[in-house]
Amino acid sequence: MRICALILISLVCFTSCKSSKRANVITKKERSADTSPTSLEENELAEKVVKEALKFNGVRYKYGGTTKKGMDCSGLVQTSFKSEDINLPRTTADLSKYGNWVDLKAVQKGDLLFFATRKNSRKVNHVGIVTKVNNEEVEFIHSSTSKGVIRSQLQERYWYFAFVQARRVL
Known about the structure:
Layout: H1 2-16, H2 28-33, H3 37-54, E1 66-67, E2 70-71, H4 73-82, H5 92-95, E3 100-102, E4 112-115, E5 126-134, E6 137-144, E7 148-153, H6 157-162, E8 163-168
Antiparallel strand pairs: 1-2, 3-8, 4-5, 4-8, 5-6, 6-7
């Protein structure tokens, strides 16, 4: 009986001493609620990433490409973010699990948009970077197999129905 009581008291002590991981963590939502330097830095970083991506506008599509000689969609994303020392996964599938999910209504410049462009499939196989948000209009840059690196509107029928998710990596 004494042993059971001793074990029970020990368990209570150990579980009550556990610190919360949440104590010092500030979420992006909490940061965006104020005008802290961090949110300003994130906006500036997004501007720089988008500016870098726009340098590739017109570059032809090349599977696995990451240069001005040829670029694929995930290569465009990885190269643009890498210019600001942000290392991201190389494949679209891995990118689609990276960062935080964002509601489409809350999308910002620099966020990633993911699409499923294969017929009868919702498996993500294409990615783009948001370049502009005006009211409900979202523009993004991506590398298409037919036209290379271009800017498109999410409201275009094709992209609207192919859209799967948005993610924030900054």
